[in-house]
From TrEMBL:
Keyword Phosphoprotein: no
Organism of this sequence: Sphingobacterium oryzagri
InterPro entries: DUF3472, DUF5077
UniProt keyword annotations, A-Z: Signal
Highest taxon of source: Bacteria
Range of residues in the leader sequence: 1-22
Protein name: DUF3472 domain-containing protein
Residue ranges annotated for the DUF5077 domain, each copy included: 45-167
PROSITE patterns xrefs: PROKAR_LIPOPROTEIN
Amino acid sequence: MKNSIKLLALLSLFFHVMVSCAKIQDVAVANVSTSAQVNSSSYEVALAGNAFVTSRPTGASEIINNAGLANWNNAATIISIYFRVEHAGDVQLKLKAKVAPANNSSKIRVAIGNTAREIDLAGADFKDYDLGTFTVQAGYVKVDLQGISKTGGYFADVSHLLVSGAASANLLYANDPAYYYWARRGPSSHMQYTIPTNEPVQYYYGEMTVPVGEDAIGSYFMSNGFSEGYFGIQVNSSTERRILFSVWSPYSTDNPNEIPESQRITLNKKGQDVYTGEFGNEGSGGQSYLRYNWTAGTTYKFLLKGQPDGTGSTDFSAWVYLEDKGGWFLIASFKRPQLSKYLTGFYSFLENFNPNEGYIDRKVNFTNRWVRTAAGNWLPVNAARFTVDATYNARQRIDAIGGVENNKFYLRMGSFFSTVVAPNSNFSVQAPTVAPVIDFNSLP
């Protein structure tokens, strides 16, 4: 009997072990299946937020709109789509496209670097076209589309690039439609300066140089930013450039028409040929600018003043040094109500305000930074912290960096470069030793 009981116990134990092994094997199979499912999933990269017309012949009509690529009819046009991978490896690509009207077809070229494929498209309804497998390096990847031949008026309408494969895990791209406009502009970058005093600061001086070739249309290179406004230079078009100075109203709105009269920014005075008015959309307030053909490679000097007027308001004034205009030139002096203070919150930034130009590289250098206290003492500024905007922080696009090169603070953004500098990194330069020489009594 005891032997029978032992035998039954052994058989029971054997049965439970086998069942357990089977369960473990089932779990392993399930895990493999789940992993394969994850690896085989595809990301839908919308052209609306991740594509640009990067080569446009004269007269071409291609555009990127909320639906993606439209009006694609010129064989010389190149459309580029961008996404970022964490690791090198293979990606499988598909293109969601249609060729309208019905019964038309086309042949297009798809390329990543030196690897190119020709793809046939046909059909008036959107469907997924297999582009094959491409080997990519870690960082941002650029996929170029170009038309080869077509039977109708258009090569195709394209809405998405589908990305899957081993290298696509944690793919980074603009995946939030609310950010598509901002992602195509690119993330802005900032230098937040550390001021070496707790005394009231009356003047803020800084020099700025845009390297040759880094002055793309849509750029705003902002030299002297402060808590209540900003002062710098812009590239507004192929024929127009500006020196711009703005001060925010204390009333929070994106529509300047909503600002109560008691909270409006008012003009004290302005320089010759300077336009003054109001701005909106990113807060509201007083705006001034001089149309001026500033040049890349030239170092410009900026001077800002903040002075309480003794009646509960503050006067903010901005000058730029222009040799061809006789030296220090007044852009404008504004009065901000409901505020009585000196200058605070010193920073510089780099941004692109034209979403169609958001694939182009931009860079700027900041040097010889000083503050002058209300008591009349000049103090050098040699430390700063690199920060980024909401587009970067939302991981929609991260091609924005800052730091120090050749003892100069710099900012760079755009062009989908793969270098990363951790936001909130601190930097310092050797402190300048020769303070600016300015006759404040003769400033215009």
